[in-house]
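Researcher: Please translate sequence to structure tokens.
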Amino acid sequence: MKKSIYTLVFALFCLGGYAQNILIEKSLFSSPRAIDVKGVSSSSPTFYFTSASEPNGLYVYDLKTMKLALDTTIKSPLGHHEVSSVIRLLQPRSNSLFLRNSITKDSLFFLHPTDSVTLPKFTYNPTTDYFYGVLDSQTVLRASISFDGLKSLDTVQVPHTNLHIKSISFFEDRIYYAATKNDTTSLYLLDDNEYVRLRYPLNFGEDTYGIQILSEDSLIVTRKRRAGEHELALLYATKIAMHPDSIQLIKQRALEKTTYDSIYTKDSVFVTESSLNTPRNTGKGRWALLVSRTTDAFKAMLTLNELLKIEPRAYSIKKDSVYFILGPRQLSEDALKTDSLYFAENGFSSLTYDLKQDSSTAPFDITVRLECLDAATGKRPPFRVDFYEYETNTLVKSTEVQEQEVCYLTYYPEYTLGLTVTAEGYLPYSKRFEPLQALNPSKRLEILALLQSQNLQKEQSFTLKNIYFDFDRYELKEVAKRELALVKNTLQEASTIHISGHTDNVGSEEYNQALSEKRAQAASAYITTMIEGPSISTEGKGETQPVATNNTEAGRAENRRCEVQLNSKAP
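Model: Translation complete:
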């Protein structure tokens, strides 16, 4: 079957009452037969679809890498929803429903093919934590599903309409329907019991077969490109829920015409981590609790990180040179009483703060949600987090995260910070946060770190992202010494340690080779001051093994590094 990725199409247009915008349409897949979107990932920019031309598999399209894959382990399901990066809800057919762990391959059945119950394709609503399926134009089936089973199954009546509803989507607290009227499929918003048709130049007069909302800035559309051919098209939009009468399409980023290998491999899902920007919830209303007010940015960052331990919706705003550390927004002063008692029980004094004109002000800080999984089992082990600032080597937050828990961190965009995760029985994980020029504080950065079990019966290597070097230097920075000290236990358990030094591509190959050797030796010298026992060897790789582009300063900085390899065998 023909698979291709077509040329990016730019179209300029005007919407009534709006200035000119740029529509970016990218064709992702084409087939002479029907295409059906089956589900959308909740933890990564991925969606799933099937084609009648290939009935024996499920297509996976990764929007981050623009890569298409065919998963032949799943045979054209009725529905597919990724509950997390590990757990999937599968509907092989209308009378079968189960959860599957994609790592362990274990399955938990809610409905067996032998049952007489028939279900429509389900769509998940994260706001209500229910799954919904369209029975007919006036009735929607609602299901509550947990790991304990199918908790409830009932119907919800929707306002009467002469539309033929085909599918349902959710964004924030609004419900959208892809529905057909007079043989034309459009997207409708159910607003105050009325169906409002959203206007946008989506189809250019051609037929549309299905519409699915991915996020606040993207749609998936199945439409006819020309007679006899269906095509899956990706359109970028902005703030869908903010414009009930129109979807304004704008240019988000430049996309290159590229062809990808469609062979499915495990590595196409993730290797060591994945990152995703998701909408940030700071509550609603003009009232909040004020925990601290200071002109010291670093002090504000420390306070907010402590507050995030008990309240993930906490945030900060900046007015002139003053930082305000706030609890979540509330609709009334009475709603603050519970927050106030909760804060006090956890050691935070607070005052009522009327946001007034600041109620719509975006947070000034960047919030990170960190989740760590065992890469082999998908379970959440306990781990320790150390979050520190680069220039002064000052600890911003250090906390022990219990089993099955996640961690929230925050920082201000002008700072560079390092993150080190250590867990008993696992190799360390580290990350560097660069200063941000373009700030999107309405988003939360979600990081999923896959921890590799430590196995000293074989060679294992890991990169400590904060063992970095200044340009043309080989002296260890204080931040580098901090990270090496944090992973001391991991290093101590090895029989042999091999350190490789690396450089960027500035300078001659001979010079960079010598510089990389000095960097490895500097790391080795410091490790020998911390631990005894393991045999340490060093090697310089020069500029031969970059991990990032050498065309930018940020990329070159990533390449000026050391990597560590452990082994339990005698040298």
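Researcher: Any highlights?
Model: Residues 208 and 223 are 4 Å apart (CA to CA).
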